[in-house]
């Protein structure tokens, strides 16, 4: 995360910081009854990088990485400037700007293919069995993401996960983005549980910070080995694998 994003993030979250322990069993004592996932602990975005490399051989990985950063920069920038756009529109705009930055000539067809790749992501291998275990234990399961409803529902369908999620929640419902507390509140409103009973599963370090600051018991599925944000409010547990989440919610 670059300095600009840290500055935006620091100004965006006004919630008080909450302390956190490191014991992965901590949430069991909180009587977790629901789990809200960001999209990317479930859906693997590496297919977008592979497609970018196919479109721009030797430059695709750099394009995908810079594009992903600009997606979230644009989300926060548009929200703070009072110029909200949904995440699919921002994804397309971020691609155009990133390609221009990298001096890549992006045709309309390449632009369409790359943007639409976010409508049909596939799951990480460990995600379906973890979801099945949560469901069999009777926990409420939700997606709570900055992605649009179309992006989420498309990836649910392409992953064969129809019927798994009790709720598919886009922050577009409040015309904002995480880490705005109003975005995290959507999970409480949908699951009708107190925040202490909802485990939030983050993919990005900034989302783990935001969720914990909001008050959720927070599991950081740190698949990419990011450093934690140096702003306080660390996640309660962290793992590159999703399976320790079952221990975190008291099911292992």
Structure description:
The chain is α/β, with parallel strands linked by helices and 252 residues long. The chain folds into 2 domains: 170 residues, HAD superfamily/HAD-like (Rossmann fold); 74 residues, Putative phosphatase, domain 2 (DNA polymerase, domain 1). Helices cover 44% and strands 12% of the residues. The strands form 2 sheets. Strands 5-4-1-6-7-8 form a 6-stranded parallel sheet, sandwiched between helices. β4, α7 and β5 form a beta-alpha-beta unit. α1 runs parallel beside α3. The N terminus is likely disordered.
SSE layout:
Layout: H1 3-12, E1 34-37, E2 43-44, H2 46-55, H3 60-80, H4 87-101, H5 108-116, E3 122-123, H6 127-136, E4 140-145, H7 149-158, E5 167-170, H8 181-191, E6 198-202, H9 205-214, E7 218-221, E8 237-239, H10 244-248
Parallel strand pairs: 1-4, 1-6, 4-5, 6-7, 7-8
Antiparallel strand pairs: 2-3
Helix pairs in contact: 1-3, 2-3, 3-4, 4-5
Spans with pLDDT under 50 lasting ≥5 residues?
A: 1-29
Task: Provide the gyration radius in Å.
Answer: 17 Å
CATH topology of the largest domain: Rossmann fold
Major beta sheet, specifics? 6 strands, parallel
CATH class membership of the largest domain: Alpha Beta
Number of alpha- plus pi-helical segments: 10
Q: What is the CATH superfamily classification of the largest domain? A: HAD superfamily/HAD-like
Helix content: 40-55%
Structural class: alpha/beta
What fraction of residues sit in β-strands? 5-15%
Instruction: Strand order, main sheet: write it out.
Output: 5-4-1-6-7-8
Shape: globular
Q: How many discrete domains?
A: 2
Q: What integer is the average pLDDT?
A: 90
Secondary structure: number of strands:
8
One letter per element, helices H and strands E, the order comes to HEEHHHHEHEHEHEHEEH
Distance N to C terminus = 33 Å
CATH architecture tag of the largest domain: 3-Layer(aba) Sandwich
